[in-house]
Amino acid sequence: MAIIKWTPFLGGEPFEDMGKWLETFEKSAGQGFTPAVDVYQDKDNVYVQTPLAGVNPEDVDVSIENDVLTVKGESKKESEVDEKNYYRKEIRQGSFYRSVALPAHVIGEKAQAESHEGMLKIVVPKAPEAKTKTIKVKVKGKKSKR
Length: 146
Hints:
Elements: H1 16-28, E1 32-33, E2 38-41, E3 45-51, E4 60-65, E5 68-75, E6 94-101, E7 112-116, E8 119-125
């Protein structure tokens, strides 16, 4: 009797897609980075901070759509050292992209972004909260017997 490999997933190997994703990730590991973010809020605004040291603020795009903030851009490093002469190369460079769901409804059109000493700070005003309105249901038709 032949041994048949058990595959509970009809689409093939269960980790095949994950393996392809990991290969893509490994190939692009040195080409860019994902910046860390801090997100906090007060009564009126949502704040997002991300360190972008060495990045020209003119090379950064900030957008807000459906209460999701996206920061993307490119870090360009111009060096006089030939690529093959490096002993160690740890400074991040390349393109970056970060998308974060904001903790409240915001007015994206009124957002402001400012870069100071390598730190990008984005301030987004919160949208006014919609007030709940209670509606009394009127009943038409026969009167109930009691």
